[in-house]
Specification:
Layout: E1 2-5, H1 7-14, H2 21-34, E2 36-40, H3 41-47, H4 54-63, E3 66-69, H5 73-88, H6 97-109, E4 112-114, H7 118-124
Parallel strand pairs: 1-2, 1-4, 2-3
Length: about 130
């Protein structure tokens, strides 16, 4: 099983967050035990400010067994279509296209998605197995 990991889970673990970190770590370990861990390039970009340099970030991702996976045009198109539906339904601009790109990447490239933002992803990506 391949699990895509959202930025918030990784920040909980890497920073670490005393309140959310332990549960995020357990969830991450569970995903690792079930198979591969995937991080899209946008999640990677969101992680950059939390690290002093690229080598440290890359090392942290290697340490948890995560592999990088790029966004391609199939994923970008799916994200754009779902963002368009969201905006046409009156969705406020609180959600930006990056959230939809991360969701579309998880939908196309993985079997499950590990996130703390379940409500949003369950609404706009109901076929994702969020955990």
């Amino acid at each position: 099983m391949i699990t895509a990991i959202d930025t918030s889970i990784l920040l909980d673990v890497f920073l670490p967050d005393e309140g959310l970190g332990p549960q995020s770590m357990r969830s991450l370990m569970h995903a690792y035990d079930r198979g591969a861990i995937l991080v899209c390039d946008l999640v990677y970009a969101e992680l950059v400010p939390a690290f002093e340099d690229r080598d440290t970030l890359d090392s942290a991702l290697r340490e948890i067994g995560a592999r990088l996976s790029p966004i391609d045009s199939v994923i970008a198109f799916e994200a754009g279509m779902r963002w368009l539906r969201y905006r046409r339904a009156g969705g406020p601009r609180k959600r930006i296209i990056i959230d939809f790109l991360i969701g579309a990447h998880a939908m196309v490239a993985s079997d499950a998605f590990l996130t703390r933002d379940r409500g949003f992803y369950e609404t706009y990506f109901p076929e994702l197995g969020t955990s």
